[in-house]
């Protein structure tokens, strides 16, 4: 059954180097095939067998495990590939080398393990594998590169074929070169030819192992001090793939011949960046979900801790990662008014928090066993940041490296790490200005007037900043990058001059190339040990098995030892180097970063109304530095992310505003209070005042008392005003900080001023009361006294007498002020009073 193919990326050596900023030196072609095992290398080692063997995918065939020769290579070897589920990385058949013996001694065995992978749509038949090599040493690093790109072997070591031909005995050497210990056209003992699978189906693979004794290869043991060193080897595959010319492809590699020379080993240091996810929240911290994903499954942080745990590997740690983890593990909830609360915020996934806490604990423990370099906040692209108008953020970003020293007290804080091939003299001076004393550069930007690989520790002249330097070897760094999980993949490349088609370069080939490079570096000056550095790119996610295999190899070779970055920096600097500002480019665009400058200024003004303005500004600055992070190199979506932040800041600035209510407000009298509703849609509390500014003088505006508006809530605010004259006045309503800084856009309301309504009303009411009072007086005088006629008296007398006679009329007696008046209804009294009244009338 055909397996799913991995997406392919055609990438030549120079293009691969450019992808990580290492253009300028001869570079290898990269590939990142998956060995499909998912396990660490098995504990086997090359042995003395001289028979090439095949490990097919059939149940009856199994891997050949040679016995171990003492002192021959590391104690671990990767599996042969037998039965592994290999996903093709090219749409043709090719050879994938998994491992090569790193050090071949006179009594040792050369072991090459790998697979034939069929990525084509046609079965591979009549396959033949040839292990070829070159007897003479590759004496320079340029020769290593030439062999990697165009191998021309002059000897045949062994052969595998689908034909069961007996190839025992002697075979003629290939080519006319004269090897050490041989003559032109001489011969070398070749192993017996073993049979390959008759057919390899599309999408399938079959493993193979070559094991050849060193004594059969003809390498000389004479004059070991000059004749030791890297040799080129190659595995050539020919097969019928259904095309007219058939398939011919070659996988070049290297082995180091080591007849025990006298030498002083050089040193190699390794630096790998440890940082969190690129995208952050608006507080500049990684989200809880992204952190959880990074420490679980196939997450990057989990892979970094697993693959880069070797104490020989130094770490460059981003303080934003530490802050993000500590904040997510120990959140400090804030009330709507901006005041921290004592109760913790419940987490959405306690299991995820547990995994994050476990990873962080292991991370802290592992960091104590190695050199740690403290990066500035978010590991910014230093060239882009210093060139932009946000350059002022570099100093605060560097100061946040104390988060790293809190976790790792011995961390180095004085070394800056620009993205390779982007540094300029101006940026170096800016780095020195903020307190850096050392800078890590690529060897492509440094010039040495020597014919060998110089030591990595140096110092720039005073006119080029005078900074101390740590130089990362461009070739070694690019090879290290290829050992990442997402290492670049190269499809077969045809050499037009010689018709050689190269197979995609595997991680096993890259490891063998690194070992050969170290041998050649020491071979350049065997009595002058130097230190070299290989540094991984910013987005490096290591393939754990490959890194472990590499450091197993490095620990086994006698011509190179591993060392820490701290020891490298303690070495005496080489002052013969000079720096070239002719950077290859690749830095993030300063013009794009400048789009954030105006947004930052507007947010600074807006933050004046927040309960904690300094905290809000710090969160934004952290986010902006994160947008300048070197982790965005080579990643899609960076400019879109900058645009999103610009739009979000513009929205934040408008998030505290006066709610649109009635467009007309009424003011009566010369003093009044107008009420408006202020809504805060920001995630932090705001301290505001509301100001009303009339456009005409009929109304005198005012400012409210300070009001705290909780996050995501609204508050009623009253503004005192004074009406001076009747009019409809347009009033500008704005929100300001307590310091008088206006926030957001103002709104306009219409206010109807009726300043004399109270006086008019009082006058009207007073007039009404006066009219009623006068009317009452006039009516009283006009009515006068009541007149009683004689008939009235006679009728009254008759009524009284009748009631007295019947007993219905009681005698009423009362005393008022000591006078007796109870007889006023007596008939005699009534008649006497009537007589007096009549006499008064006649008179």
Automatic annotation (TrEMBL):
<feature type="region of interest" description="Disordered">
    <location>
        <begin position="328"/>
        <end position="352"/>
    </location>
</feature>
<feature type="signal peptide">
    <location>
        <begin position="1"/>
        <end position="31"/>
    </location>
</feature>
<keyword id="KW-0732">Signal</keyword>
<feature type="compositionally biased region" description="Low complexity">
    <location>
        <begin position="27"/>
        <end position="53"/>
    </location>
</feature>
<feature type="transmembrane region" description="Helical">
    <location>
        <begin position="760"/>
        <end position="778"/>
    </location>
</feature>
<feature type="region of interest" description="Disordered">
    <location>
        <begin position="153"/>
        <end position="188"/>
    </location>
</feature>
<dbReference type="Pfam" id="PF19516">
    <property type="entry name" value="DUF6049"/>
</dbReference>
<keyword id="KW-0812">Transmembrane</keyword>
<dbReference type="InterPro" id="IPR046112">
    <property type="entry name" value="DUF6049"/>
</dbReference>
<feature type="compositionally biased region" description="Basic and acidic residues">
    <location>
        <begin position="816"/>
        <end position="843"/>
    </location>
</feature>
<keyword id="KW-0472">Membrane</keyword>
<feature type="region of interest" description="Disordered">
    <location>
        <begin position="27"/>
        <end position="89"/>
    </location>
</feature>
<feature type="region of interest" description="Disordered">
    <location>
        <begin position="813"/>
        <end position="843"/>
    </location>
</feature>
<feature type="compositionally biased region" description="Low complexity">
    <location>
        <begin position="335"/>
        <end position="349"/>
    </location>
</feature>
<keyword id="KW-1133">Transmembrane helix</keyword>
<protein>
    <recommendedName>
        <fullName>Secreted protein</fullName>
    </recommendedName>
</protein>
């Amino acid at each position: 059954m055909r397996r799913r193919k991995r997406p392919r990326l055609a990438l030549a050596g120079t293009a691969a180097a450019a992808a990580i900023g290492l253009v300028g030196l001869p570079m290898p072609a990269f590939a990142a095939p998956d060995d499909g095992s998912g396990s660490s290398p098995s504990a086997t080692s090359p042995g003395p067998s001289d028979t090439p063997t095949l490990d097919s995918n059939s149940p009856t065939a199994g891997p050949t495990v040679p016995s171990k020769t003492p002192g021959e290579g590391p104690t671990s070897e990767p599996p042969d590939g037998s039965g592994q589920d290999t996903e093709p990385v090219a749409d043709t058949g090719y050879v994938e080398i998994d491992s090569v013996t790193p050090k071949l001694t006179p009594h040792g065995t050369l072991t090459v393990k790998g697979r034939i992978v069929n990525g084509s749509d046609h079965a591979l038949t009549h396959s033949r594998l040839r292990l070829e090599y070159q007897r003479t040493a590759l004496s320079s690093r340029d020769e290593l590169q030439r062999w990697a790109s165009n191998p021309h072997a002059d000897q045949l070591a062994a052969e595998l074929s689908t034909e069961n031909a007996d190839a025992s005995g002697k075979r003629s050497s290939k080519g006319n070169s004269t090897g050490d210990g041989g003559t032109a056209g001489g011969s070398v003992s070749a192993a017996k030819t073993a049979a390959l699978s008759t057919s390899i189906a599309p999408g399938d693979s079959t493993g193979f192992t070559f094991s050849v004794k060193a004594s059969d290869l003809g390498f000389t043991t004479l004059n070991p001090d000059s004749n030791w060193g890297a040799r080129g080897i190659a595995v050539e595959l020919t097969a019928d793939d259904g095309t007219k010319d058939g398939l011919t492809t070659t996988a070049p590699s290297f082995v180091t011949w080591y007849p025990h020379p006298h030498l002083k080993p050089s040193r190699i240091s390794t630096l790998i960046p440890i940082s969190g996810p690129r995208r952050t929240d608006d507080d500049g911290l990684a989200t809880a979900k992204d952190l959880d994903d990074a420490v679980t499954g196939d997450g990057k942080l989990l892979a970094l801790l697993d693959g880069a745990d070797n104490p020989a590997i130094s770490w460059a740690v981003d303080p934003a990662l530490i802050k993000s983890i500590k904040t997510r593990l120990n959140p400090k909830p804030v009330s709507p008014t901006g005041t921290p609360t004592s109760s913790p915020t419940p987490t959405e996934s306690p299991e995820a928090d547990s995994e994050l806490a476990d990873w962080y604990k292991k991370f802290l423990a592992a960091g104590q066993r190695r050199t740690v370099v403290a990066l500035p906040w978010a590991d910014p692209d230093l060239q882009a940041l210093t060139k932009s108008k946000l350059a002022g953020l570099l100093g605060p970003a560097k100061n946040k490296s104390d988060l790293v020293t809190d976790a790792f007290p011995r961390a180095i804080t004085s070394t800056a790490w620009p993205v390779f091939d982007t540094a300029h003299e101006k940026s170096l001076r800016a780095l020195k200005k903020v307190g850096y004393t050392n800078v890590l550069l690529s060897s492509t930007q440094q010039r040495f007037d020597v014919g060998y690989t110089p030591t990595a520790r140096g110092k720039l002249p005073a006119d080029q900043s005078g900074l101390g330097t740590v130089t990362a070897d461009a070739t070694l760094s690019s090879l290290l990058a290829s050992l990442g999980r997402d290492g670049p993949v190269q499809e077969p490349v045809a050499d037009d001059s010689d018709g050689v088609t190269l197979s995609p370069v595997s991680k096993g080939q890259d490891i063998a190339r690194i070992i050969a490079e170290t041998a050649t570096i020491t071979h350049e000056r065997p009595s002058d040990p130097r230190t070299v550095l290989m540094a991984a790119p910013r987005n490096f996610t290591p393939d754990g098995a490959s890194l472990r295999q590499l450091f197993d190899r490095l620990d086994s070779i006698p011509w190179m030892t591993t060392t820490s970055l701290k020891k490298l920096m303690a070495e005496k600097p080489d002052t013969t180097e000079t720096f070239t500002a002719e950077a290859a480019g690749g830095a993030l665009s300063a013009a794009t970063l400048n789009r954030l400058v105006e947004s930052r200024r507007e947010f600074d003004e807006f933050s004046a109304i927040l309960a904690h303005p300094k905290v809000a500004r710090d969160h934004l600055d952290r986010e902006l530095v994160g947008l300048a992070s070197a982790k965005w190199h080579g990643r899609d979506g960076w400019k879109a992310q900058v645009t999103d932040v610009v739009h979000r800041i513009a929205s934040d600035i408008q998030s505290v505003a006066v709610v649109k209510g009635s467009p007309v407000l009424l003011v009566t009298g010369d003093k009044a209070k107008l009420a408006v509703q202020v809504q805060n849609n920001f995630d932090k509390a705001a301290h505001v005042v509301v100001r009303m500014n009339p456009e005409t003088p009929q109304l005198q505006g005012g400012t409210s008392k300070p009001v705290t508006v909780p996050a995501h809530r609204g508050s009623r605010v009253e503004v005192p005003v004074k009406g001076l004259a009747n009019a409809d006045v347009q009033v500008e309503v704005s929100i300001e900080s307590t310091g008088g800084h206006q926030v957001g856009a103002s709104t306009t309301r219409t206010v109807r001023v009726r300043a004399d309504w109270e006086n008019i009303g009082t006058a009207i009411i007073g007039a009404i009361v006066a009219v009623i009072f006068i009317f009452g007086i006039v009516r009283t005088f006009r009515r006068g006294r009541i007149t009683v006629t004689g008939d009235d008296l006679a009728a009254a007398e008759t009524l009284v007498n009748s009631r007295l006679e019947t007993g219905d009329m009681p005698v009423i007696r009362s005393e008022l002020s000591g006078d007796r008046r109870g007889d006023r209804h007596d008939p005699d009294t009534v008649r006497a009073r009537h007589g007096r009244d009549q006499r008064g009338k006649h008179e």
